[in-house]
Structure prediction request, 188 residues.
Amino acid sequence: MSSEKVAPGDILGVIEEFLPSSGVYEDEKGYLRSCVLGSALIDRYKKTASVKPAVNKYLTLKNGDIVEGVVEYMNEDLAFVRIYWVENRRAVKPIDAVGVIHISQASQTYVESMYDVVRLSDVVRAKVVGGKGVYQLSIKEPHLGVIYARCNYCGGELLYENGRLVCSSCGQVSKRKVASTYILTKVQ
Prediction:
């Protein structure tokens, strides 16, 4: 079994080689990509690809906590987020919890589909608004939303440029609810 450090969206292989397991999803082109930050575990005997999250310490979240996580599953109305970090709790190791963003908590304006707001493997900054176990999250505020994303078409990093996200590799423009703290911005 081989192991290397991976980030959300990194390619681990193709569906013809391995079956996706924990922390891995198949994109529309048949590539297996990491959903989480951690160590890739490629089992050539069982023909599986998985990612062991970088953190495993659990911590209870409170309403109002600002969290970061990776979108692991979504549909038209919901996005499931694997939470790995809580703001202002640096003394405690990062956490491993699940949050859900409902379409009504995605924007202050009308949103037709969650696919207009976030995509699989996006890293989001959100606020906890309720729940225990599976937390209810909101990204309505301007400083909340996507803080890191990759292109839907080629997997290249998306740069925030003139109020829109543009792929650094293919130039494709992508639609997201971008946080004011987006990580990659084009220097003018």
In short: The chain has a mean pLDDT of 87. Residues 74 and 113 are 10 Å apart (CA to CA). The two ends are 45 Å apart (CA to CA).
